[in-house]
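Researcher: Here's my situation. A collaborator sent me these components and asked whether they could plausibly form a single complex. I don't have experimental data yet, so a predicted model of the whole assembly would be a useful starting point for our discussion.
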Amino acid sequence: MMAEQDATGAPLLSVRDLHVRFPTERGTVNAVNGVSFDLHEGKTLAIVGESGSGKSVTAKTLMNLLPRTAQVSGEVTYDGQDVQALAEAGTKHFFGVQMTMVFQDPMTSLNPVKKVGEQIAETLRYHLGRSRIEALEEAEELLDVVGMPEPARRLKQYPHELSGGLRQRVVIAMALACQPRLLIADEPTTAVDVTVQKHLLDLLDRLRRDRGMSMILITHDLGVAHGRADDVAVMYAGRLVEVADARTLFFDMRHPYTEALLRSIPRIDDPVHHRLDPIPGRPPELINPPDACAFAPRCIYAQGDCLGGVPELSGLVGLHRFACLHPTGTERGMAAMAANRAAGVTAAGLPVAGGHGGSG
Amino acid sequence: MAGTGHAQLRDHDDVLLRVKDLVVQFPAGRRRVVHAVSEVSFDVAEGETLGIVGESGCGKSTVARAIIRLVDITGGEVLYEGRDLAGLEGEDLRRVRPRLQMIFQDPISSLNPRRRVRDVIAEGLAVWGDDIGSWSRDRIDELMDAVGVEARYGARRPHEFSGGQCQRIGIARALALDPKVLICDEPVSALDVSIQAQILNLLQDMKRRYGLTVLFISHDLSVVKNVSDRIVVMYLGKVCEIGSTIEIYSRPAHPYTRALLASIPEPAPTVDIEEGDIGDELPSATAPPSGCRFHTRCPRATDICREVEPVSEQIGDADHYVACHHPVEVEISAR
């Protein structure tokens, strides 16, 4: 779990052993449990997971957007500065300037009763002290940069007059206003259609390259992560379960959850009526989680030792890391699978059929 | 098509549902009209799964709702076993409704939160009583068992179940009346990735077990390909292309279908489609473009597309129909 420095120089963002807990009436929700990763300048990290995996909470923690009730521990360093200290000092011109965020639903992240030009200009006036006229001129340029047709006219429109795709472009323009070095995009294309999604992802890609920005792309969509990220981190039940460069993660994964997730989604090049391989069961509760691998009840590789403690995320930050005692594609994994097939059931009680699954 | 025409309609005995020149319009105030569905024609054979794909605003959900008369039909026919549902009223409509059942996108909000799930599933049976034949607690238990929800949880309320389980309960409710046609409107879009496959497999199993004919509406081209025998591609209230799933995915002829396929972000893409950029602005459905409704975004559009609405024509002798003045007749290459 403790991380070593990556060989390729100091990362722009470094997260170490991040924990986030929310006290609720039913008990404490362990939303994020010991997350560590690095993000280097100019790179894109995708954080992939299902609802409740902790991916959005991780992003909000970085942006200091959690409610006061949240209990956060761990270390977040941005360009050598402790982000928590910046947040506590009430630093005005850090969040939204150096590090900015784009949210899923552009309608709720825009003010419905304010023209979009004014909303973009507001950021420039507050953070960079521009005059109103200067700020509106810059806002028009920004709209042009994000590919908004007729930017001068759009400045004077209200969010409801724009389509979902154009609204999201406005949100991206606002995020770019102060020339951030890190952009966090939380499900930026989940609310839009597939053709619009392609345009927005292309836009984010181009902006990242042109401006040398780093990006954290949070998504539930493995396809989005595959095409757009240098590195991919898979989260399950508040933990990172596998982190690797995109190619390794998709073609030489080690964690059974990554493998099962990829196998369960219908793909465009599968034959018609191809029988899907679903992941049995459902994601675990985050209140009072058992001291075991959270995926074990759904895992066809599960052995006795999987139930005897949470497996550590092994390996160095920056290299292929995975939290599994019987990783897929290894001898241990194959032995575990063979044992479970022979027994017809996993150590966690999940029935295993004979010809089911396999090793990556 | 983003056009009209009937070339795609089949003349079989086993056509169970035929939609012909269906028009649905909604008033939008100030005498304006939303042209949600405009002269759409297709048919579904018994035992077939027909997928309807398109982006939001293309009218796919409205078509589904019009078929079971959840919205008013402005014009055209919906023939079910030879009877026109569009003209049915009162008791006649009530009697045909159990034959066509629907499951919805948001599984939780489509179940009454104040009722026990057993009662949710039984409601249709209770309403129909002896009309539908004898029913009992056993029937509810059997349905719950079939969809994979333990019958002993029948006394619980919807909020005590996850989204995936609520969708299973919604499926059980739809199956309770022993329907012939199951209409699925984005049934897995609101579910987590790991749960989607469970529900898709369940729908296939139910289709086989209860001999269903399925109308499957989704924006997700990979999901639709997985479940459908035949596909309708819609754009702005019109049909673009209809054909067997294999035809549509291996030889997409309409520029819009090709653009959709080219936009899919895929893990390990192996399909390579060259297609021009279609922009991301959907024209208004209150004032749809003239001629072919897709011409404002189409990379192949010419003068004729602005003036003349294309009519569906068969491509070769395959089960494949396209309404386009400039269809693409190239097989897509596997990378």
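Model: Some features of this prediction you could bring to your collaborator: Residues 342 and 354 of chain A are 8 Å apart (CA to CA). The longest helix of chain A spans residues 194-211.
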